[in-house]
Amino acid sequence: MNKIFFKDLEKYYDKEIEISGFVENIRNIKWVQFLVLRDSTDRVQVTIEKSEEKNKEMVELVNTLTVESTVKVTGTLKKNENVRLRGMEFIPTKIEVTSESDPELPINIHDKDAQLLDQRLDYRWLDLRNEYNFNIFKIQSYLVKVMREFMYSKDFTEIHTPKLIGAASESGSEVFEVKYFDRKAYLAQSPQFYKQMAIASGFDRVFEVAPVFRAENSNTSRHTTEFTGFDLEFAYIDSYEDVMDFEEELLTYALDKVNVKYGDLIKELYNKELIVPKNKFPRVKLADLYDILEEKYDYKVDEEEKNDLTTEGERLAYRYAMEEFNSEFIFVTDFPKDKRAFYHMRKNDVPQGYDLIYRGVEITTGAQREHRYDVLKKQALEKGLDKDIEFYLEFFKYGCPPHGGFGLGVDRLTMLILDISIKEAMMLFRGPNRLNP
Ligand code: AMO
Description:
By secondary structure, the protein is of the alpha+beta class. It contains 12 helices and 18 strands. The protein folds into 2 domains: 94 residues, CATH 2.40.50.140; 294 residues, BirA Bifunctional Protein, domain 2 (2-Layer Sandwich), CATH 3.30.930.10. The strands form 4 sheets. The chain has an 8-stranded mixed sheet, with helices on both faces. It starts with 15 loop residues before the first strand and ends in a 12-residue tail after the last helix. The model has no long low-confidence stretch (mean pLDDT 97). The site of aspartyl-adenosine-5'-monophosphate has 22 residues, from strand 11, strand 17, strand 18 and helix 11.
C-alpha cells in the first residue's frame, strides 16, 4: 500500500523514490528518451539522457519497451519549468518492466471514436484507460458516496438483501429464471419485498445499493438487463408527498456535492453543465400532463396509451418542466392502478406513487406502500398474484408501520448527468446481446 500516487508527487521533490504506472507514451529521440507514465490519479514524465554511460541499460530497455506496459521506476523527481506536463520530470536510476503489453492494441484507446462502441466494449479494460471513460466511474463512485453519506446522515441503515429469490417480486414477465439445484429460482428484479420486510422488522429507515436484474429484451440507450439500484424505504410517512420531498432533498444534496468536485471536469470532458436544482421539482398528474403536452406541443396520443408515460411524453415533460419551471426534474403522479404495482397504496382508487423524470428520462419509481394486510392481499389477488407472494403478505400481519420509498437507477442517473448512453455509464454493460467481458 506504499504506492505513491502521481497526484501527490509534489511532496517528493529531490528525494529518491519508486514510482509505478502504465507507460502511456514513449518518445525516443536523438539524445534523450521520454516516457509518460500514468496511474489512476495523474501523469508524469520520465527523462533518460542517452549520453550518460550509467543509463545504458535503461536506454536499451526503453528501446524495446511497448506502450501500455507497466513499469516500476526508481529515481528522483526534479522541478523543470520546461516540461509541459506539470513542470516536473522524473530522473530514473532503474527501470523494471512489471508487465509487458502486446505491441498491437486491438482498439485505439486515445481516440474512443475511432471504433464502434461495441468494439470498445469487447476490450473494456483497455477502453477504460481513456480518461473520458475512466472518469465516468470516478464521478459515479463519488455520486454514490455522497448519496450514501446523505442516507447515513438521515439515520438510514444500509442493508443487503438476497438476489436469488424463490418468487418474482413485481411481475413474472421480467425475471430471469435460474436453475437452483432441483428447482427454479429467480434473479431479483428489485429489493422491494425485502426493504419492506426491514420496515416490518422495525428498522424505520433502510436503503440498499445493489444489482437489479431485468429480463427485458430491449436494445435502447436506456435499458440494460442488470443495473445498480439505489433503493430506499422509510416508515411513519403521511403520504407519498413525503417520499417525493425526500428524493428531492437527496438529489439536490448529491448534485451539489458532485458539482463542487467534478463540475468543471464534467464540462471539459462531457461538455455538459451540471445544474444543481434550486427550486422544488414540479409535480403533475399524468392525465393533466397529457393535456398540457397536447395544448403546448400538439402532442397527441391514443386514449389507451395515456395510462402510462410514453418515451416521447417523458421527453416533452422535460421540455415543459424547463420552460415553465426552469427545472430539469419533474414528478409525474396519479398513474392508473393497472399500470402500477399491487403494493402501491391507493386513495380513491388512485395509486399513491410517482415517476421522476430527469432530463427527459425516468430515473425513479416511488410510492407510499399499502401496509394494511387485508387491503394488500386484495390488491395482490386482483393482479392474479397469490401463492408466490404469500410469504411477503405475512410481513404485514404482525404490525408494520405506514411507509414508502423509491428505487433509483444509478446507471440512468450517471448517463443523464454526463449525457452518455447507458452502455457507457456502466463499467460492464449487460444487454440481451452482451454477457462478456
Ligand atoms: P422500477 O421498475 O421503475 O421500480 O425501477 C426503478 C428504477 O430503476 C431503473 N431501471 C432501469 N435502468 C436500466 N435498465 C433497465 N432495464 C431499468 N429498469 C428500471 C430506472 C427506474 O426508474 N420496486 C420499484 C421501485 C420502488 O417503488 O421502490 C421498481 O423497481 O431508473
